[in-house]
Amino acid sequence: MTATLTRPSYGETATRIRAHCLRMTHNGKSGHVGSMLSMADLIAVLFERILHIDARHPRWAGRDRFILSKGHGGGAVYAALAEKGFFPKEWLMTYYRDSGRLSGHISHYVPGVEFSTGSLGHGLPVAVGMALSAKHRQEKHRIFCLVSDGDCDEGSTWEAILLAAQHKLDNLTAIVDYNRVQALGHVEDVLELEPFADKINLFHWAVKQIDGHHYGQIENALSQLPFEKGKPSFLIARTTKGKGVSWMENTVSCHYGSVSDEQLAQALMELGVRP
Amino acid sequence: MSDTLLKLDMEKAHNAIREIALGSVANTFSECLVRHAKQNDRVCYVGVDTMDTQFKKLFPDRAFDVGIAEQDELGMATGLAKIGLIPVVQGWSPFTPLRNLDQLRTYVARHKANVKIITTTLGLVNCSHGTTHHDLESIAIYRLIPNLIVLAAVDDEQFRQAFDAAMAHEGPVVVMGPPEIYAPGDDGLDDLKLRHEDFQVGRAQWLRRGKDAAIFAVGPALRYVLQATDELEKQGLKVSVINACSIKPFDNAAVEEAARTSQVILTVEEQTIVGGLGSAVAEVLAERGISIPFQRMGIPDRFVEDLGDWTYTRRTVGLTKDEVVRRVGELLGRRRQG
User: Fold this and answer.
1) Is the pLDDT of residue A1 over 50?
2) Which residues, 6 or more positions from B70, have their beta carbon under 8 angstroms from its beta carbon?
3) Residue in A103, A116, A255 nearest the CB of B128
4) What is the pLDDT of residues A264-275, one digit of tens each?
5) pLDDT of A8 strictly over 70
6) What rounded mean pLDDT belongs to chain B?
7) How far, in Å, are A49, A146, B65 from residue B108 at the CA level?
8) pLDDT band at B21 (very low <50, low <70, confident <90, very high)
9) Cβ–Cβ of B9/A251 closer than 8 Å?
10) In this structure, what DSSP letter does residue A3 have?
11) Which helix (H) or strand (E) holds B282?
């Protein structure tokens, strides 16, 4: 299959997502913005091009299912859903606020969100169940699950990896936002996952590795699913935590730290966005 | 990134997480851990992507981090204990005990493994993070497990005492430390200014004594219970406040004394009312045939989905000082009618 052309709007969408996340976390005095920034480009391509979803019919039976297993990054998905019209953009500033529409970790009560997560390692097992059911019912929609590297510390993720291969779930795609930074340390210092691709390959998934900030690579990979018939697809997207804000990039502190007024202004300037 | 910048980044990250995960007790936790490790070379630390950097600097060969893997954390802690070490496990509730209940029950407790589990996010303190981060079940769950000692500290000083008591015991102990309330809201976080006697496993702490009502409370609920009793005192009512700092073994005698010396009993907890502190008190009253107006105040049998800061979130489930005042009034009304 020939590679599709990169759509020029991905960068603009990703920038809007990043700006929303910075404003939301600043306004809600919350953390996790680094985790949102690292996945913004993946989310932009998924929601602009790859996912077959419809804001007018968020529960349309034939829709693709997208589960965010790294629930703390929910702000980025909320931003994408708002941009797509699943709910009013005004909701974004209720993130982490009293009686807010948008809870800190992603919530299935928000239109467009399939499943609530926040406790890591839960997304992929649920995605496997969805994929298995879809296969059983001969439904054509696809299931996507975005996990963090921290998710892959949890045993439940590996149980799901085993099961997906056992049932040859080639309607399932797992994407790892592989920024190599966890809550309190770098992956190599906490629980090394390498050789990651080799491990997943041996678990009988079809594996690809890409630059998770290169729109062409993201689109090409996710436009050619499954990677291999009869196997679930595993996309390792190498990303940078805090991507887009120079002083956040690749830092551990951007996981939990919140953004001050001054930092917000600086970050938006770096993104080329009006405060 | 240069080594210097890396070190600064990690320090910043650790300070942020220490405030969130361990909160006000972060420094106390480190101090207790290091003190015991200096006294006893079998004491080690097990984190769940939460390495205590101070401990690691001093005792690098006794500092373990399993990553985000709660089941593995208790499994390997049991193994460490079986071969003579004394693991102090930093658990992050509700994930501990929800995700590793089997390991807690069947490995740690059943084998009476000398493991100390420290958690510090009891109740609704994670408020706007969402339901996945609310610890509403710990007390009920821990009560179910045999061989387990379960303690709850109201502030730093009591945490230190509870930690020492845990280390003095040969066997598994859970210490639920005073939580960091990162978004307190209007209620604020006044210093409780409590005076503590020596901590005793199996003994409740009488913070106040009064003849009109007795309120058993635990953890973060003690803040607004104490505020409520101030209000009740203005109405001329004298209220006992009992800090249920020893959940297991439970101070049954304190329940009997409360029933003898007060007109009514209320329990208050930022936990489900099913199976927690309220149930513990109800069990004593029922089995000993004590007839007294009684109510449990806690989270109703549902998830808490209307979120905001701690004050706002508690208000949505009726866990406020005003509601405590109202309930005491209601109970006293029943007493008068009875």
Assistant:
1) no
2) B48, B91, B92, B95, B96, B99, B100
3) A103
4) 999 999 999 988
5) no
6) 91
7) 49, 34, 18
8) low
9) yes
10) P
11) helix B277-287
pLDDT > 70 fraction of chain A, expressed in percent and rounded: 97
Distance CA B316, CA B242 (A): 25
Kindly report, residue by residue over B74-94, the tens digit of the pLDDT: 999 999 999 899 999 999 899
Q: Is B327 helix (H, G, I), strand (E, B) or coil?
A: helix
Q: Give the C-alpha separation, B178 to B181, whole Å.
A: 9
To 5 degrees, how large is the angle CA A212–CA A214–CA A218?
65
Segment B228-273, tens digit of pLDDT: 999 999 999 999 999 999 999 999 999 999 999 999 999 999 999 9
**Beta-bridge partners for B173:** B116, B149
User: Residues of A at the B interface (Cβ-Cβ below 8 Å)?
Assistant: 28-31, 71, 96-100, 103-105, 107, 109, 116-121, 150-151, 153-155, 182-185, 190-191, 250-253, 255-257
Q: A interface mutation test: which of B2, B11, B68 has the most A CBs within 10 A?
A: B68
Question: Average pLDDT, stretch B155-163?
Answer: 93
> What amino acid is encoded at A120 in this protein?
L
Max mean pLDDT range (A75-79, A249-253, B72-76, B189-193): A75-79
The answer for residues whose C-beta is within 8 angstroms of residue A227's C-beta and 6 or more apart is: A206, A207, A208, A221, A233, A234
Cα–Cα distance for residue pair A221/A228, rounded to 1 Å: 12
H or E segment at A81?
helix A74-84
pLDDT digits (tens, 9 = 90+) for A64-85: 999 999 999 999 999 999 999 9
Counted residue by residue, chain A has a size of 275
Task: Indicate the burial class of A203 (C-beta count within 10 angstroms; 0-12, 13-18, 19 or more).
Answer: middle
Beta strands in A132-226 (DSSP E): 143-148, 172-178, 206-211
The rounded Cα A98 to chain-centroid distance in angstroms is: 26
Q: How many CB atoms lie within 10 A of CB A209?
A: 16
Gap between the terminal Cα atoms of chain A: 42
Measure in Å the smallest separation between the Cα of B121 and chain A Cα atoms. 14
Query: Exposed e or buried b for every residue in B141-169, given b needs 16+ CB within 10 A?
Result: bbbebeebbbbbbbbbbbbbbbbebbbee
Tokens (6 digits) for A74: 């929910």
Question: Pairing between strand B86-90 and B63-65?
Answer: unpaired
* Cα dihedral B8→B12→B15→B18 (10° resolution): -110
| Preceding amide of B97 cis, omega within 30 | yes
Phi and psi torsions of A208, nearest 5°? -135, 155
* Run of H or E including B205: strand B205-208
C-alpha to C-alpha distances, B257 to B175, B220, B240, B268, B295, nearest whole angstrom: 25, 24, 11, 18, 17
Residue A153 to residue B133, Cβ atoms within 8 A: no
On whether ipTM exceeds 0.95, the answer is: no
pLDDT at A6: 55
What distance, in Å, lies between the first and last C-alpha atoms of chain B? 73
Instruction: Indicate the residue type of B258.
Output: A
Q: Would an 8 Å CB–CB cutoff place B56 in contact with chain A?
A: no
Q: Which residues, listed in sequence order, are joined to residue B216 by a DSSP beta bridge? A: B242, B267
Nearest to A213 by CA among A246, A235, A243: A243
